[in-house]
Predict the 3D structure of the following.
Amino acid sequence: MLPIRRSDHHAGGFNRGYTLLELIVVIVLLGLIFGITAPKFMQGLLTDSLNATSLRLIGLVQDLREQAIRGQEPYTLHIDIRANKVWAFASSASEEEQEKARKRAYQLPPDVEIQDIWSWTGGKHYDEAIIRFSKKGYVEQSVIHLKSEDDREISLELYPFLGTIKIHDGYVEKTSG
């Protein structure tokens, strides 16, 4: 009896790759895995009010910087610390436009508060703070301190020339000069 020898040749060529069916099955399985895990990850991130608020403020700061550069016009971010509200407007905005922006202000969730805001020139602010964006996108070095109901703290540090924001867990103390 002769040993059976398996040939690497099929009717059309070599048998070295995956079939279309195998590739489809792998893609479907990967899709199911990501479809199940990704929403839970995002939901966990966004249902935490402190994290969601910090992400929202970061997005607002980045958006204002981009608008200032694109429109070649300074912008102002106004933060009412006592009322937990944030709004922004172009520096050239009329009183009426500024009032409209104030009425459309972002209200922080009830379980998150702005503790204070530190700025390079003004030190700590406990009532109201203004962060200005130049038409080149520069911003005064500032730190926004957020605190949740369960006493967790996050500090958002704005860097003047880099256009970046660093997120610190906990309260980061800064001093001028």
User: Anything to note?
Assistant: Residues 2 and 52 are 72 Å apart (CA to CA).
